[in-house]
Structures are given as C-alpha cells and as structure tokens.
Amino acid sequence: MSLSRRSFLTMLGAAAIAGPASALPVFKSEAVPFSVDWFKSEAKRLAAETYAPMAEVPESWKNLSYDQYKALVFDTGKALWSDTDRAFQMDFFHPGLYFPRPIEINIVEGDSARTLGFDLSLFTRFEQFPAELVDGADDRALGYSGLRLRHELTKPGKFEEFMVFQGASYFRAIGTGQNYGLSARGLALNTADADGEEFPEFTRFWVETPTDDATTIIVHALLDSPSTTGAYSFYITPGLPAEVRVEATLYPRTELDHVGIAPLTSMFLFDQTNRSRFDDFRDAVHDSEGLLVWNGAGEMLWRPLANPAELQVSSFVDENPRGFGLMQRARHGEDFADLEAFYHNRPSLWIMPKEGWGKGAVTLVEIPSDKEIYDNIVAYWRPREPMAAGSEHSFNYDMRWGGEPEDKRSVSRVLNSRIGKGYDKKTAYVIMAIDFADHEVFNGNLDDITRFISANRGTVSEGVLQRNPGTGGVRLAFRFTPGDVGSAELRVQLVKDGKSLTEVWLYRWTA
After folding, report:
1. Could you tell me the domains of the chain?
2. CA-to-CA separations, 423 to 69, 420, 430, 431, 480, in angstroms, rounded
3. Residue 117 has what DSSP assignment?
4. 487-496/450-455 β-pairing
5. Geometric angle at alpha carbon 231, from 225 and 235, rounded to 5°
6. Distance between CA 128 and CA 272 in Å, rounded?
7. pLDDT, tens digit, 9 for 90 and up, residues 401-442
8. Residues 106, 204: contact at Cβ < 8 Å?
9. What predicted TM-score, i.e. pTM, was given to this entire model?
10. What is d(CA 117, CA 105) in angstroms, rounded to the nearest whole number?
11. CA–CA gap between residue 26 and residue 44 (Å, rounded)
C-alpha cells in the first residue's frame, strides 16, 4: 500500500482511541534546572559545535509497515495530566516509518525539568505488535516522534485536540471546530533553490506543566540543522482562532543566505482560475486559496494561488511587513462539493510580526502538482541581508489559526477570481473576473470609482464594474490579451478620491 506524507499526516490528526485507565509518566532522567535563559544558551552552545543528528531508532522500528504504524494508536485515557485537574492534556506519537529519529520531550515543573522515557503501554493494541518490538520497547534509543495538545474546547471534561508537533520543524493547529489543513514550520532554508532545501528539525522539547485554570500552554523547542540552531518558545492559546505567540532566536553555524521566517505550507490544486485543467466533479480543491499581505506601506495585497506548469517563485518586496498569511476564504460546503475532505472548514493562518523585521520580501513558492495529497505551496518572510555564522537573530511573531485577520485595513476583500475564455472560445484573449465583497465603500454610483488595471506584458481592456446580485458586492471583469508572451504580472485596484477601496489584486498569468 502506498502512502503520501499528506495522507499520513491526515491520519495522525484523527482523534485517538480513548482507553479505560490513565498511566503515570515514565521519566528516564532526574530533574535538572530549566529556564528560558538556559534554553537560549543551550542553543547558542550547540551552534558552536559540529552538527550531529539525533540517533535513529532500531531497524525493526524503521521498517514498520504502514498498517503496523497505523495500528498502534495513542490511548488518550493515558494522556499526560489526564489523572489530574490540569487544564491541558498531552498525547504522544510513536516513532518508525517516516519518523526514524525520535525527539526528546522534557516536562517542566517550576524551575526544573525531567526527560520522558518511551512507554509502549501508552498505545492501544501494543500486545499485538511483533514480539521483538514489544520486548525491545525499553531500548533507550526509542522515543516519541511528536506530541499532540488537547484542551476542553467545547464542553467540560471533553479534551479535544488543537495542535500537533511532528516531523522536522512542522507543526499545525486548528481553531475550535475546524479540520486540519495547512501546516507551519519553525524555519525554511533554501526553499526552491537549485542545490536543494535543508529541513531543520525540532529535536528537543520542554513543555511547561499548566495550572488547573490555565488558558495558555507553553512549549519550548530546540531547532537543529547543519546550518543553524534555534531556540523557539510557543505560547499557545486554543480557541477560534487558536492563537500562538512565537519567540524565536537563531544561531547560524554557517552563513544563511536564503532564510524563510514563519514559513507556511499548504495545498492548492485548482479553483475557478484553472478549473479547465482538471477533470474533476468538484468545483475546487485546496487547503488555501490565496496569499494575503498587509505590507509596510499599509496596502492589502491579495494574490490568488496558482498550480503552475513549472515551479515559480514570487517575491513581494517590503520593509517591516504588518502581516501575511495563507487564507481559505471559500467557507461553504458547496464551494467544493466535497462531502469527505471538508475543505471549507480548513483554517487560514495569519502571521503578525512583532517589532520591525526590516527589509526583505514575503516570498511565495508554487510547485506543480497533479494530486491533492501533495503540499505544493510555501510562503514565508525572507530577510534581505544574509545571516553571518556566529551571529544571533531574533524574530517574534503572533499566529492566528482560524479565519480572516480582524486587525487589517477596512477595504473590500476579494471573494473569488475567475479566469478563462468567454462564449467565443477562439478569441486571443482571456477574461478575468474578480468578485469583491459587499462593503459600504460601494455605496453610491459605481461610475465614480476609478479602475486601475495593468499588466507588465500583453494588453488589458478598461474593464466593466457592476454589482453582483449573487454576492451583494461588485464584480470587475476585463480582457487580457497575452499575445505571444509566456507569462505576465497583472494588477487590479479600485480607488475613489485617492483612497483604495479594495485589496490590491495581483496575479501571475502563465501560458
């Protein structure tokens, strides 16, 4: 049986099976002092040493089949803190298959921490596992491959999952009532570069024990890779949206020229911009449909995502960005006509930098894909200046996993983008139709609104602006004639009395 990374992560996000009894944690170390200052100094110390990856689990665990891995499910009745009145509970993922290198998980109580040992009895049906694996479960090389956080989200006594850390520096969260969709990472290095990408890993975690009435749980994660180390602190508050404050400090081992800060990873297969390429009964398939940027100049930029024929990278040059993120704006089941994937219920993720991030670019990487099981979209902030070996760099930001950001400029947002031929399929042009949401800025005569439509290649028409009874907002439609060019950058904006009324619509058209 074949298994993609995407379907594998979907399986991991499903609710675990609850068991009848709780279990005390197994620690394999005595308590040692812990503080955030020590944590950062540990990352700095490690950066001065030669990179050494975490040890791998025994071969018998690495060679687990998909069915074996899936059969071993964490028993949530034995979750950490399940036998207490703590406000949060924590589950664990076992290693093997795609996760050959276990992580270290430490539990912080006060100003000290102890390291958890691997406990196979925390998983259901472990007795049915191959005997050699059960007998070797006390091997000190074993460990967990990730962790899952749960909280009483909808009613007392019911602990529901809202965030998972597993694999490299990947993590993902959901707002209350949502389904898992896009992911985030601690750091991206050399994404889409010809020499290949480097994937730093969260190798060691310190989770602070929450109080009985806590609404926030704190997780510290040590990042390590051949090129850098990093100290990451996550202050996580579940809800709708789920809010995560990130404090990250990097300690490069080598010069870092292509760094991705606050990287997001998602999937976009098709929607009304490229529907004709896919023979599919559904109207759209994507975890995210657009990149939203609130730049340092105060503009709101909307870039519909694309599934290009060839790899493409777009850079939105900026200084001190106010926010960026990958949005899922289609929120009705019939927007997708998919009764299983629930794409309409996937979270958007909004990044809000703290302090000034300086000069750089919000970078969008779009990778060709023919299946929805593959993540093919990456977005991140790329600082303009390289980071020297031996230096120290801090990046703090807030994350909102849920819906639209609430603190952006009050302009009409893009509801949908449609691209294709009109009734005459033989024409040399394509029609671009952009639907903007209902907004008070459209009160009055639409003829008083100035339409800015431009393309760096090819030609565009003046466009027609009219009210859309289906959305309650307005639609701007125009013709784009590419001629013999292979690609073109398009820009649309509606303005009145020198004031922008809408998000700035940007799109890279490709032949």
Report:
1. 5-402 (2.70.98.10), 414-510 (2.60.40.10)
2. 52, 10, 11, 10, 15
3. P
4. antiparallel
5. 130
6. 49
7. 999 998 666 899 999 999 998 777 778 899 999 999 999 999
8. yes
9. 0.92
10. 8
11. 29
